[in-house]
Design brief:
Aspartate Aminotransferase, domain 2; four-stranded antiparallel sheet; seven-stranded mixed sheet; Aspartate Aminotransferase, domain 1; binds pyridoxal-5'-phosphate; 2 domains
Length: about 400
Amino acid sequence: MTVATLPPFNTAGAELLTRLARPEVRELPAYNAGLSSEVVRQRYGVQHVARLASNENPFGPSPAVGQALTQLSLKAGLYPDPNCRALRSAIAERTGAQPDQVVVGNGSENLLEVLCQAFLEPGDRVVTLLPSFGLHEIYPRMMGARVQMLPVTPALEFDVDAWVAALTQGPAPKMAMLSNPSNPVGCMLDAAAFRRIVQATPQETLLVIDEAYYEYALHTNGFPDALAELRAQNRPWIVLRTFSKAWGLAGLRVGYGIASDDRLVQLLDRVRTPFNVNLAAQVAALAAWNDPAYMERCVSDTVVQREWLISQLRAMGVVMAPSATNFVFINLQRPNGPVAEALLARGVIVKPWKEVGYESFIRVSIGSAQDNTLFLEVLQDILRIEKL
Ligand SMILES: Cc1ncc(COP(=O)(O)O)c(C=O)c1O
């Protein structure tokens, strides 16, 4: 059977589409999801690809996940539990929350999206970090909110004074979107700085604490216990975490939030698609959650690798931010595009940062020992050639 290809839109058609789209959508920047391993293999003819652009766990999920998934095909014809009851109870039990305070999403990015859909109206102000995780800017803008982005300091740390000023001056922002530790910088607010920001946040501001790298940050002294701090507050908040990083489940898309109270979860329930977390994702996340020792081994290994990589890079004279995560943010002090491209040509995928002011930075995930070594060797070659 031959399939007729449609002629491409002419200019008038393209203009029509642009006019029909919501103005907020027309202006949205595209999320930079990077290249797949397959594309890199095909485009550059490399055998091995080092995936160091998405902050995945190089060891993958616990073997218990594989076992749980093998029994799944019998149930694949049935809708999953729309309320993720088993997973929410398990998360609640270990985090000291009530199951009704827990919400699960198709990745934590899904929860960022439904939070914006549930709370933001055109013109609302949202405060977040610069540089930022792309969706902290894109989803608020999708709803027509104005996003105030607070740059990190020249030393690549949170500018706590700027946060306090942005939260306390003028009308209360509708939402504060704070990733701790930050992505892409990797810097961390310690307990005292976190408390200062929480206490400066007006009660009418929904405080969204994105802890996608929580399990790694626990290895850095001073990382705040956000849940304990926030539970002492009479205010709306939600802490987001994910199964995509330390738990090795990025491909199955599961993130969760622990909210100040069940009414916040009920509001999100009205906005999310009813079956937002599929059956395989629920089963896999529960199996992973029930094997915390495996996750902790992965995280400990990654932290050791990170410190080794940082020491090697420093010895090469490379400048970077401190990191409480599974990645490092490197200032190449030259445009990042050609370096990232040269790394790709040798099969190493990193993320060249594109936000204005940060175009000399690349974000590099901590991978397996083999991939970290490959990255170092290739970077060294590139920097040596560029010096000639
Ligand atoms: C800060 C931050 N938040 C949220 C996410 C989204 O993670 P996921 O949707 O895979 O749970 C990421 C992923 O990179 C992230 O870095």
